[in-house]
Amino acid sequence: MRIKHTRSDGFEVEGWPVHVDAGRRQPLGIITHAHTDHAARHERIICTPETAMLLSGRWKQLGVRAVPFGQSVHLEGARVTLLRAGHILGSAMVRIELAGHTIVFTGDMRTQPSAFLAGAEAVENPHIGDVAGIIKEALSKK
């Protein structure tokens, strides 16, 4: 399973028409959280209810499917589960089960709880389970 990343197209899994954290409009996109570097006004959006609420303040009339943490949905031949990332309100990691493979995209995450949010779900959580690959978002100082 090949994965490609560009700022404009986000993360793309080869052969799957869904983009994760794409910077430009796509037919179908998963948005991990409401920061502008992770969100574009896609035709159809998958995100948490909290992220949908934050995005609705910026964009009116969104085609959003709000998926609560831990609930799985079937999307274009894959099983997708959003997991708590602990970064900001509604931030999610994305677990994708497709063609016998499981990948987790972390998006921005915080492992420790803050004054307002629980930290990211741990890998041993049963919602994460047996993962073949983890794509971790990383920030660097220049």
Report what the structure shows.
The chain has 142 residues and is mostly beta strands. It has a single domain, classed as Ribonuclease Z/Hydroxyacylglutathione hydrolase-like (Metallo-beta-lactamase, Chain A, 4-Layer Sandwich), CATH 3.60.15.10. It is 7% helix and 32% strand. The chain has 1 helix and 11 strands, in the order E-E-E-E-E-H-E-E-E-E-E-E. The strands form 2 sheets. Strands 1-2-3-4-5-6 form a 6-stranded mixed beta sheet. Strands 7-8-9-10-11 form a 5-stranded mixed beta sheet, with no helix packed on it. A hairpin with a 7-residue loop joins strand 8 and strand 9. The longest helix has 10 residues. The protein starts with a strand and ends in a 7-residue tail after the last strand. The model has no long low-confidence stretch (mean pLDDT 85).
Low-confidence stretches: none
Largest sheet: 6 strands, mixed
Average of pLDDT = 85
Q: How many domains, in number, for the residues?
A: 1
The CATH C-level class name: Alpha Beta
The CATH architecture: 4-Layer Sandwich
Broad shape: globular
Note the run of SSEs as H and E.
EEEEEHEEEEEE
Q: What would you report as the Rg, rounded to the nearest angstrom?
A: 14 Å
The number of helical elements comes to 1
Strand order of the largest sheet: 1-2-3-4-5-6
Q: CATH superfamily name? A: Ribonuclease Z/Hydroxyacylglutathione hydrolase-like
- Percentage of residues assigned to helices: under 10%
The secondary-structure class comes to mainly beta
The CATH topology is given as Metallo-beta-lactamase, Chain A
N- to C-terminal separation? 32 Å
Let me know the number of strands.
Answer: 11
Strand content: 25-35%
